[in-house]
Every structure is written in structure tokens, then in C-alpha cells.
Input
Amino acid sequence: MSPSSGAETLSPDSQDDGPAAPETRVPGPRDSHVTGSGDTELTGRISVGFPLGGGRVSDFPEPMTRAEDDDDPTLLGPRPATSSSEMDAERYRGRGVLGEGGMGEVRLYRDVHVGREVAMKVLLPEFADNATKRTRFLREARIQAQLDHPCVVPVHEIGETRGGIPFFTMKRVRGHTLSSILRRRSRHDAQTLEEFSLKRLLHAFAQVCLAVDYAHSRGVIHRDLKPANIMIGDFGEVYVLDWGIARVLGAADGGALDTRAIEDLQTMSGTLLGTPGYLAPEQIRGEDLDGRADIFALGAILFEILTGSALIAEAEAHVMLTDTLHDLDVHRRYRDVPDAPAVPHFLMEIVGLATAPNREERFETARELHSGVQSFLDGDQWDEGRRAAAARHAAAAERARLRAREGAADASGTYAEAMHRAGMAVALDPDSEQARRTLVELIARPPAKLPPEARLTLDARRDAFRRVGMKLLALGRFAWLLCAPLWVWVGFQDIVLGALIAATAMTAGVVHSWAAMQRPIPMSLVRFTAVVQLLSIIPVGFVLGPYFLLPVIVVASVPALVLNVDAVGRRMVVAASVVAIAAPAVLEWLGLFPASYTVVDGAVHIGSPVFAFDEVSLRVFLLLSCILATIVSVRMVGGIHDRLTRADDELYRQRWLLQQLLPPDERNGRGLDSEG
Output
């Protein structure tokens, strides 16, 4: 909309975006005053002299005076005008109704003495005898009148009609509420996107921050800041509207307004004033408020300007309040915005600081928030704000690090918070000494206990490692079947023992193959397969006795098994190895099998109850068996070693990348490159 159009918005929350016929609108959650019971009292509250959707026929008796050429499209049609017994009836000439809200009606008048248009807000007649409504109406007028700031609509006069109904007149302002602008921007309206660029909205937001800071300096907390209560004029004006539920501090509390003229706003116990989605957590909890409650609302508004989406998604009031109390991760909420526009990280950090759940971690003043946004807009003057944000992150990181070291209940989560904060501080200000020191401490002294999520990742990695080991062991056992042609060539003395050797090797291979298919592979299964592997070698002891070929194969198998098992498994491997070697010897000692070894005249004779060796076949058999045992052992252990080497390389690559976050003089210090 061009400045020359002179068009006005219909309502802070109207669904129309320009002049249109009046309509009746059902207020949503963001127009509500929320009670402690979870009910909502929909008020559709209005502010100063901007047109509002909807309307009612007033019961004021005075006829409306309207010029013949008055074609202002924002008027809602002929209505009776209002005059005051305290003022000259000829001074104000009614031109029509601009609109109404839940408590008041806004009319357009012409002040013929001054020659200007004014907006007159009048309490609705049905509330004339309602002391609470009258108090809120008049305190809004008096607060607004005493806040002498360009972003607060000036009040000209406060009075009563002849019927005793309070009213106040103020400057008539023209423009668009921020809520209507953001709605049109979300619809990608080309004219709105061109007229209200992000840069212009940020400039307007910065002005709002200064206006709020001014109000705070005068002891006034707005308590209902939201896009619907911010108006942007066609000629650069920015207004903060609707001071009806503002909290005013007395002089003893640091306030500067004349509180004798402003009645205290009394609320029922459990009543919560404000708009869900913009209420600070402490406001919801009913705690004593200070200006940081308004800073939270400003942060929520800034999030909406930057992303086009509300920080707290619109829903039932109690759902929005719960989200505010328990789910205020602005970065996650930004990631959840569909088709979210790219937002400068610096600005998102400002949003995070403004909306911190703990008000102690927020900006102290609205001026600080203004400085952060303005520094971004200025471009070449943003360093100070960036360094200040980095210092806050660094301090928070150091606090989290100390909590983790002192044994916080959630040590891993606290450590992660410290690492995140320190990383943010270094990103914002690489020269921050405090951030560097904290980061060095965090990297050099990781948490003593592995965090649960890291444990899950490590367990999955180890499971994959075991699976590789199982496949290699299965391959090793099946490889012995390659000797079958050699066995046939040598010839059998006892075909049953030969079949037993082949069957046990096949059984061990099948067990390992089955174990490799399990998801995950429990350590108990790994131990079991290791024992099966070793016991399956026992029949080999009958080939050339328990002290010759059998120990070679056992020793060749043990390294691959030990790399796959835990401490308990290693003890089981030792026991199974002893059994595998000793079992054939014991059976021979007991006379259950023929003796493999005899000594005649000092010469040791080795016999084989399985194969019918001659001199040539024995030499070939022993040579090929030893070669095969070596190859299988190297293949099994080498495959596991390669896997370990790749994991080690990846670990140190990640470690090297982490070290690049540190200054050069710290990269080789503080034990970062030490063993262990």
C-alpha cells in the first residue's frame, strides 16, 4: 500500500488487510485474557484511534454531523455522534465509527476549533456501571497520556459524556498493524513484501524496543505486547498500542508516573492477563514481574518477524501456556517452521536470549535488545553486540562446565549444553579468551561417563564390529574343508574320526554364520561362539596327537576370538583352549583312544588313528596344514585389525577437527595429543 493511499487497517486482528465492509470476527486465542482455570474470556480488546472491524449501534442520542464530501472508506457508516457536557458541543463533529472491541468503541471526530481529526474512544454503554471496566478504561487513558513518547499515541482529552460514560480523545493514526502485515507476508503478497521488507520491519521493531524501554524507565510494564498491538504507519511512524493492562510501579518501586491519577488494576486471584504465545513463563506462573516479561514478548515478536511463524503455535490456550513453560527451544522451533526463510544466526541468537525461560538469562533491558537488532541493521557497528552475545554464551558455558564437573544430576546433558554454548561463543567471537579457555577444558577433559545417546551409538558400532568378526571366524572354519581332497588322497584309517573332524568344523562355521545374522549380537552369544570354535578343534588332536598340530590351530584361532569378547569372555577362551588341548591327551591317558606318541630307544614315534600316512603324504599334509593355519589366522586377525584401524583413523580425524576450534597455541597442549 502506498503512502498516498491513506488507507488504514480495520483491526489489530482483523482478517482483512485493507478497507472493506464491516464484519463480525470471533476472537482467537491470541486475543484472550486467560484465567487460571483454563477458561478464556474473549475480549477482542481494542486500542487507540485505528479503525476496527465490527461495530454496534450506540444509544447516544445526538445526531451525527457528516460533511457532504466525507467519503472516508474506513468509516463504518452512519452512527449517532457523542458529545460531552464538559466540552463545546459545536467543537466535535462526528464522522462515523471506526470500530469497537470488547470494552470500548472508537469513533472519528473532527475538532473544528483546531481543524484536525481525532479519534475518540468511548466505554461501551453496557459497561457504564461496571467499576472494573471503568477503572481499566480510564487507567489506559491516563497511562497513555503520561507516556510522552513518539511511539505512544498522544491523548488529547479525558472526560465523560452527558450520560456519564467515560471517553478520551487522541491522535488519529493511520497504518497497518504488524499482525496484518505478517499475515500478508506469509501469503507472499507481492505488494506487502515490497512495501514491508524484512529490513523495514526490523527497523520498526527496533523503535518498539526503545518505546518499551522508555515505558520501563517510567515504571510501566506493558504486559500485552504482540503484533496486533504494534502499528506501522505509511510514513515511517511506529506505535505501541493498548496499554489497558499495563502494570504501573509506584515511586517506591522506581516508577516515575503520577500514580495518584492512575488507579491500581485489581485482578481476581488466579486471573492471568495477557495473550497466550507472548506471555513470559514467570507471567504464567504468577510471579512478580519486571520489564523482562515484556522483553520475552518482544523476543516472540522478533521470532515471528524473522520466520513468518509464531514462536508458540496457535492452539488451545492451556496448550500454548504449557508449551511456553516447557518447550522454548527457539532453534528447534525454527527448524520446525515449514519452508522457513534463512535467518541470520546472529538474529536467532538474539531471539534465544530474549526468550530465555529463565529471565536471569535474558537481556536486562529492552534497550539491550534494541542494540542487538540495530547493530545487525548497521552492519559495520555490530561487533559490540556480537561480542556481548559471545560473552554471555561463554559465561553460560563455564557455568554448565562447572556444574558437570561437580556431579550434576544430568552431567551429560550439562556437558552438552556447555559444549554448545562454548561453540556459539567462539563462533560469535573467535578472540574470546573466556570461550577459548572453556572450550579447551571441555575438549581436554571429556565426561567420565559416556552419555546415554553416545552409548547407544557406540554399542551399535561395536555390534557391527562383532558381526565382522563372526563372519571371519565362520570363513576360517569353512576354509578347513578345502583340505578334504588332501584327506582323500592321504587315505583314512578311521573314516568315522575323519567325518567327525569335518562335522565339527562345519558346525562351528554354521554357529558363527547364524550369530552374525543376529541384530544385535549379545555378548553372551559372542562368548558362546568362542567356546564352540575352540571345542570344535578337539577332534584334530586325533590326527597327530594332542601336542603337535592341535596346539597350532588353537593358537591360530585365539587372537581373533580374544578381539571379539569382553573380560569374562577372555577367561572363557583360556578355559576352552586348555580343554581343547588337554581333552585328547586325557582320553589317551585313560586308554579310551590309542596312544599317539611312543618312545622306542629314545626315538619318539607319532601315530595317527585317523589317516594312513606314508612318508610323502605326511610331509605334504603337515606343510599344507601349517600354511592353511597361517593364512586363516592372518585373514581373521587382519580383517579385525583393519576395522580397528579405520575406527581409530576416524576418531583422530574428528579429534583433529575439534582441535581446530582452538587457537594454534592450544592445539598441542593440555593433554590433547597425549596417549590415552
Observations:
- Residues 29 and 227 are 14 Å apart (CA to CA).
- The chain has four domains: 3-176, 277-365, 382-449, 453-654.
- The longest strand covers residues 92-100.
